[in-house]
Amino acid sequence: MESARQVPRPTPSPRRTDNRSRLLAAAALALALVSVVVGVIVAVRHFPLGLIVLCLIAAAGVSAWHGLLRRGLGRVALLALAVVMAVVAIVLLLGRDPLATVVIGGIISSTLLGLAVLPVMLRLLVGSRGVSDE
Fold this sequence. Notes:
Blueprint: H1 19-45, H2 47-69, H3 73-94, H4 98-128
Helix pairs in contact: 1-2, 2-3, 3-4
């Protein structure tokens, strides 16, 4: 009997990181550090309100991160929760400024359109094509 001939499998090449990726990662870490420092300064200067805003932004970041890791309805719900927490933080920080009202209205309307109107429109467009099982 002839022995079975084995075909060698290609070995996966190690993941290369170039200088551009390292520079972008360093820039992201630097921006994260700057935003933490600014958040702490705001929390200290506007003590009770600033601390609440800082906690809301941190919770929105955690919710957005978990939303990106999920699929389906969990992703949509967690990302919408992150947007709502960020909007509440903006409202608390900026108060009754007219520009803040416009920005907050835009964020809320785009979130509602993304959650309610877009899925209905997609269902109507896909349903009108008449997909057959043939």
